Amino acid sequence: MGQVGGREKLDEIYFVQKVKLGQGSFGTVWRAKHRKSGMTVAVKQMDKASMPKRGVKRQDIEREVSMMKACSHEYITKLYDTFEDQASIYLALEYCDGGDFGDKVRELGPVIKEEDTAEWMRQMCEALNHLHSKGICHRDIKPDNFMVLGDSTLKLSDFGLAVHLPAGSILTDKCGTPAFMAPEQHMMPVHSRGYGFPVDMWAAGVSMYMIIFGGKHPFLNRRNELDQRLMLEGKLDFTDTSSVAAQGLGLFGLGETIQKFSEPARSFCKQLVQVNPAARLSAGNAIRVAWLHSGRRVAEQKRKLAEGSPSDAEAVAGRGDPQPRARSARGDTPSPMAYPQGDGRTPKGDGRTPKGAGKGPSDRFGIEAPKAPQPGLPPKGGAPAGQSESVLIRRELEELKQSKAELEAQLVEVKKQNKDFRTQRTKEVAVQEAPPEAVHRESPTTLMAATAPRLLPEGVKCRYEPTSSTQYPFLPAVIQGFNDLDCTYNLDVRPHAQPSRIAPAKEITAEQAWPRGTLVNYFSQQREQQGAGQSSMPAVVKSFNEMDQTYNLDIRDHADCDRIRVRVIPREVAEAADPGLTSAMMRPALEKRCTKQLNGQEVGKLPEEVLETDAAAADAEVLGRPQRIGQGYWCHVPEHDLFAPVVAVRGGIAELDISGSMTELKLEALRAPKQERWAWPKGTEVMYHSGSLGKWIIAHVEGYNRTSSTYNLDVRQEADPEKVRPR
Question: Which residues participate in the annotated binding site?
Answer without folding.
Answer: 44
